[in-house]
Each structure stands twice: as C-alpha cells, then as structure tokens.
Amino acid sequence: MSILVEIWKFFTTYILRQAPYMVGFLTLIGYCLMGKKWYETLSGTIKAIVGFLILNAGSGGLTSNFRPILAGLRERFNLNAAVIDPYYGQNAVEAGVEEVFGKGFSQALTLLLIAFIVNILLVRFNKITKCRSLFTTGHVQVQQAATAYWLILFALPALRNNDMTLLIVMAVILGSYWAVGSNLTVKPMQELTDGAGFAIAHQQMFGIRLAYILADKLFGTDGGKKKREVKKVGEMEMPGFFSIFNENMVCTAILMTVFFGIIMMVIGKDFFVENGSMKVDSFGFYIINTSLQFAVYLAILQLGVRTFVTELTASFQGIADKLLPASVPGVDCAVCYGFGDSNAVTFGFLAGLTGQIVAILALIVMGSPTIIICGFVPVFFDNATIGLVANEKGGLKACLIIPFLSGLIQVFGAAFISGWVGLANYGGYLGMFDWDTVWPCFTVLMHYLGYIGIAIVVVILFALPQLEYRQDPEGYFLITEDYEAYKEHIAKKNA
C-alpha cells in the first residue's frame, strides 16, 4: 500500500502539476489506445514534452521582456495595457491563474481534452446535433482552453471549489463552441473553395459567418435576389512592397517596433535606466532590440505549441476518423488563403489594422483604464480571413468595411473583457474576434445569471446548427458529402 501511495504522490507532484509532463502522459495514453508501435509512441511522447518545454521558454521570455514596459505604463499613467494576441493571452492565464483563483494551469489542459471529447460526440451524433465539423487546430485549442478557463472561473465563483463540476461545465461550453463555431464556417468555406472539404477551426468562426452574411446582404447579391455588380479586390493591382506583410515574423517585428517603440519613447529613457532593464547607451537601439525580441519569443512559443499539440491531437485524431461520418475537419484559417482573391488577404489585414488603431486612439482619448496594444495574430489572421470571405460575397467595399469594423470590435471588446475579468493586469488577452464578442456575452450571462446563464449559453449553442439545418434540410449534409450534387440542388432551388 505504501508503494502505491508513493507512486500516487510522485504522479500528482511531477505529472499532474507539471503541465509538460501531463501533456506527455496524455499523449502516451492516447497512442497506446490507438495501438501505435512502441517507437512511434515514444517519439510522440517525447515531442509532446519537449514541445511544451519550448513553449514555457517562449512564455518566460515574453513575460520578462514585457514586464518593464507594463511597469512603465502603470507608473507613468496609472494604466493597464494588454496585448491582444492568443499567445500573450495564454501567457497571461499561466502567470495569473494560480495567484487569482488558486488553480493550476494543468487543469486548463484537462479542460482541453474533455472539451475535445464533447466536440467528437457532438459530431458523431450529427444527425441529431447537426454539427458537421471536428475542431482539429490543436494550438488554437490550447489558447482557447486557457482563456475559457479564466473566464469561466471568473464568471462562476460558486464552482471554484468543485473541480469536477467546474470542468464538466467548462468542457460542455467549450466543446460545444468548437463544434458549433466550426460548423458555422462549413458553408462559407465550401463556397469559397468550391468544395475543398474543410471548415475553419480558429478564433473568428462566428466572425466568418457574420462577415459572410453581411457582405452578401449589404454589398453582394443577397443570394441572387438582387442584381448588383460586385467588384472584387482581384480586379485591382497592388504594389509589390505589400508582400512584406505575408511574413509572420517580419510583420510581427514591424508592428511591435512601431507600437512598442512609440510606447517606450512616451515612457522615456530614464525609467528603463533606473529600473535596470536598459543596459546599453543608445535608447534607440534598446527600443529596436526589445521590440524584435517579441518576434523571437513569439516564434519560440509558436514552435513549442506546434510541436506538442501535433502529437496531442494526433493521439485522438485516429480514433475520431473512424467514428465521424458526414463531417469535415476544422483547420487553421490560413488554409483558406490559397483560395479566392489572394490580395483580399492583405486588404482585409490593412483595413482591420486601421480599425484597431482608430479604436486604440479612442481608448486613450476617452481615458480608458485599460489600453489595448495590437498583436499580430488577431490583426492579421482575423481580419485577413474575414476580408477574404467578405470579398468573395460582397467585393472590394465589403473587404474594406467589414474588417475595419472587426478591428474596432477587437479593441473595444478586448478592452472591456480583459479589464473586467483582470487578465489585463497580466499583460495579455486572446483578443481574436469571437473572444471579443461571443465570449464576453457568455461571461456576462454566466456571471450575472449563474446556472440559468449556463443553460442559456448551452441552448444558444445547440440551437444554431438546428436553425441552419431548417433553412435547407436537403442540402445541409449534402454540402459536405457531395459538393457537386449540392451545387445542382442549389441551382434547382433558385430556379
């Protein structure tokens, strides 16, 4: 018996409470259940552990790099500043969840796994639930699990001492969001790609469907009901230098140098000299070096996430593939950039960036207690994807106006929710479209209505695919099973 106790103590101390090794353990179990060969299982387990350790290195670098700037803002202006970026948001949760709620970050990863199982079940029984897409974008699942973990802990204080109930509630809400949100993108993506057979599983799924609807209704042909000329972005020629923004690392470095450079100059050289963070004579060189370090640590973070999440999700994917008929995989939003007008990606990004800058200036003018700083991932991937979909349905005007509005929403929504729940105090918030709109609404409902709010959130999520199914019962599953037959069905329906 004493041996079992010691084994359990070792497991809880060095596995359950150590996120890298908890991820490795779960990957090991998953591959064993799939019947993988021993060397494949060993390889996947090691990659999962090392990947998470790499993530921790990037996360620690971001924290140490960003802390002096946050301290300067607080000291000089008495402000909270949050970077809206999923990696900064995840880092903020890791940094503050134990201090604020007395919880370990490893529970957020447990939430991820249970929520993924909920997603699988909703898609497995899609004849009832009408959910057709499995969320397979692992690094996004980690980011969302972290932020959802914080938001629900904040919204439901009565459940903080009941870990099992808390995780079940979280998993149902998050797993349903994954299944329902990616399902909303099936139609826009099938139309954009002419039946390529995937949905989007990312951070702006509700935003994609909203852009699809608004672009068609306000700027497009309204499903063929209106005769209106739609001029798309592809009909215009763009300067070659815009291609620089296609490089994630370069764009991150430029944006961070511009935004953090301005902030650091406003804070002033004296502050950084006094607190010991500036160890060179040239303030200009210090600004550039500090700003570029953000791109470095962000790249490290992304490498770590890609390394361990690939193994973690793969250990479930093989099982899921055998159990989910009439469904499509939900993938990263960047996959759709190979379809439609490629220039719409850049136009959407620039329009969204303009909206974010306008909103940030508005926060400063209004004296907001929480100031938002642009992050590359929301400003590019949200608005580029939304711009691509908007252009396809509504042309150039839709591609410029809808991402611009998205940029405004990203900043104002993030300022509200990150300041309210306290994530701004730790320097980051996920900041993507759905998490500045849908999830703040969920948080408000659960915070003020408790269990009734939970029920309302779940009912809303379950109702959305049912409502979409009722609009076209015959074509609903046909669009994923046989897209050519679906196009014939739509042609007959319109005729």
Written overview of the protein:
The chain is mainly α and 495 residues long. It has 20 helices and 6 strands. The strands form 2 sheets. Strands 5-1-6 form a 3-stranded parallel sheet.
Strand and helix layout:
Layout: H1 2-16, H2 19-34, H3 38-77, E1 80-84, H4 86-101, H5 106-124, H6 126-129, E2 133-135, H7 138-155, H8 163-184, H9 186-193, E3 199-200, H10 205-219, H11 248-267, H12 269-274, H13 283-323, E4 328-331, H14 343-366, E5 370-374, H15 376-421, E6 428-429, H16 433-449, H17 451-471, H18 473-476, H19 478-481, H20 483-494
Parallel strand pairs: 1-5, 1-6, 2-4, 3-4
Question: What low-confidence regions span 5 or more consecutive residues with pLDDT below 50?
Answer: none
Task: Let me know the number of strands.
Answer: 6
Q: Biggest sheet, strands in spatial order?
A: 5-1-6
Secondary structure: helix percent:
over 70%
Apparent shape: globular
Mean pLDDT over the full residue set: 84
Largest sheet: 3 strands, parallel
* Count of discrete structural domains: 1
Secondary structure class reads: mainly alpha
N-to-C CA distance: 75 Å
